[in-house]
Amino acid sequence: MVNLVILRHGESEANRDNIFTGWSDVPLTDRGVYQAHQAGKKIAQTNLQFTHVHTSMLQRAIKTADIVLGECHQDWLPQTKSWRLNERHYGALRGQNKAAVKQQVGEAQVQEWRRSFKTVPPLLTCLRQDRRYDSFGPHIEPRGESLEMAYDRLMPYWTDCVAPRLLDGHNQLIVAHGSTLRALIKFLDGVSDANISQVEVANGVPICYTFDEHLTVVKKTKIQ
Ligand SMILES: O=C(O)[C@H](O)COP(=O)(O)O
């Protein structure tokens, strides 16, 4: 048996302020830092030993991972930061208050943008890519993504970087975001396109998947 722990970052300033975030690089709040410590303490109690930690390239996930590893006394672990684990890009919604957008376009439209699998949010008309992505290519940062588009760019990371390590019997830790973890849960749990709208991932609550040697999920538990 081998284990994968997935964890959404602690509360960010944008979460606190109810702002569409996506690829914006916002810091954790004090509450988010606390949530990360609590998550780390809970993971430590399981005595799980990881060989690798995977995060997005956004500070809310990276800082959460660092805090968790400190609590687990596994700060030395090799870490990969990948844009493929970044939050789904919210396009032109980025930076807007979710309640204010609801007032403008109605609750049903906002829910569709936030929770449907295929609906693409309003796209940014132009984009200046942040330099952190330049070494991966000129057009890495999208102008907006549906959950499906985020799923499609996440899966190569699973196939190339996570699944092989699990198949070799090494426990892995992924610290990422609400939407990219919903995409991973969709794959691991076999959730339909329609039903993924019902799946929510809370800040700072670790979820442990246990797999057999064929990478079939045999158990899924919240670590609490
Ligand atoms: O990017 C964001 O705004 C949040 O991380 C998640 O947004 P959601 O709650 O709409 O999925």
From TrEMBL:
Residues engaged in binding substrate: 8-15, 21-22, 60, 87-90, 98, 114-115
Pfam families: His_Phos_1
PROSITE patterns recorded: PG_MUTASE
Keywords: Gluconeogenesis, Glycolysis, Isomerase
Molecular function, one GO term: phosphoglycerate mutase activity
Reactions that this protein is recorded to catalyse: (2R)-2-phosphoglycerate = (2R)-3-phosphoglycerate
Listed pathway(s): Carbohydrate degradation; glycolysis; pyruvate from D-glyceraldehyde 3-phosphate: step 3/5
InterPro entries hit by this protein: His_Pase_superF_clade-1, His_PPase_superfam, PG/BPGM_mutase_AS, Phosphogly_mut1
Active site: 9 (tele-phosphohistidine intermediate), 87 (proton donor/acceptor)
Enzyme Commission number(s) of this protein: 5.4.2.11
CDD domains to which the protein is assigned, alphabetical: HP_PGM_like (cd07067)
Site features described as Transition state stabilizer, chain residue numbers: 177
GO BP term, pick one: glycolytic process
Methyltransferase in keyword set: no
UniProt family annotation: Belongs to the phosphoglycerate mutase family. BPG-dependent PGAM subfamily.
Function: Catalyzes the interconversion of 2-phosphoglycerate and 3-phosphoglycerate.
PANTHER family: PHOSPHOGLYCERATE MUTASE
Protein name: 2,3-bisphosphoglycerate-dependent phosphoglycerate mutase
The species this protein was found in: Levilactobacillus bambusae
Lineage: Bacteria, Bacillati, Bacillota, Bacilli, Lactobacillales
Originating gene: gpmA
